[in-house]
Specification:
262 residues, 2 strands, mainly alpha, two-stranded antiparallel ribbon
Length: 262
């Protein structure tokens, strides 16, 4: 029975690699029926259901795989995939739970903290989100995107001085890339203008916003009155949501890469 199940599993993988997903899933279903105690079978089906955007089916399979898997290293890969699945289903409380399990078991990939922090933000836990994005900055060399993300969290928390500190660091990187990518600096100048306005530094806000406008070829504001009307609209419309984390399957535990076979 086990031999037949593994034969179906191998055929399923071969078909998946050839792009024959529908037929591969049929073989995988047969493998599961023959040996329903193999976590690898459920994980594989869950991973391919996830790729097909069949998220409820993927969630069921991944949960079953976790229940069957006793190896922490392997279970962590499944937990991460399930965390992504909960994210797609907008179940952010469970994203936080799975991310916390991974962190507590020593998996220190910045992406895990990003997902937990992003989910905490969506749930209204700004301080928790700032803590997680601060941890991301300790673990990654990204001087732009993550600084910008934390700056927006500080902005949402009315911690304007700290937001400006992060934006200053993001701007240093953006100015180094000025010849090839002016949009990076433009975004930072707009954010700085917004923070400065909220802090009450209207003239500095006016200068920063106009500098960004000129940088990308837009006309600067001449009238302070028209600028204030624009920045007020921006304050009301600006979401300040950090960018959604990626759902790439990669983990690090105590400095050792753990890549998924899926």
């Amino acid at each position: 029975m086990e031999h037949r199940a593994l034969a179906h599993f191998k055929r399923a993988l071969d078909k998946f690699h050839r792009g024959e997903v529908k037929d591969g899933l049929v073989d995988l279903e047969q493998a599961i029926q023959l040996d329903p105690a193999r976590w690898e079978f459920f994980w594989t089906r869950g991973a391919f259901n996830y790729r097909r955007r069949a998220y409820p089916a993927a969630l069921s399979d991944l949960t079953q795989a976790i229940d069957l898997c006793s190896d922490v290293e392997q279970a962590a890969k499944i937990y991460q995939q399930r965390m992504f699945c909960y994210g797609r289903l907008e179940d952010y409380e469970r994203v936080v739970k799975d991310a916390t399990w991974l962190i507590e078991h020593g998996f220190i990939e910045p992406n895990i903290y990003q997902w937990r922090g992003w989910s905490k933000y969506i749930m209204g836990n700004l301080e928790g989100a700032i803590e997680d994005y601060s941890r991301v900055l300790e673990l990654t060399l990204d001087p732009y995107g993550n600084r910008l993300n934390r700056a927006m969290l500080y902005y949402k928390s009315h911690r304007y001085d700290e937001a400006l500190e992060d934006l200053d660091q993001a701007l240093k990187f953006a100015l180094r890339e000025l010849e090839t990518e002016r949009t990076l600096a433009f975004v930072v100048y707009q954010c700085r203008a917004l923070v400065l306005y909220q802090r009450g530094d209207i003239e500095k806000s006016f200068y920063e916003y106009n500098y960004g406008q000129v940088l990308v070829g837009f006309k600067p504001y001449v009238s302070m009155e028209s600028y204030v009307a624009t920045i007020k609209d921006l304050v009301h419309s600006f979401s300040g949501i950090p960018s959604r984390p990626s759902d790439r399957a990669f983990l690090t535990r105590r400095g050792t890469p753990q890549e998924s076979i899926i």
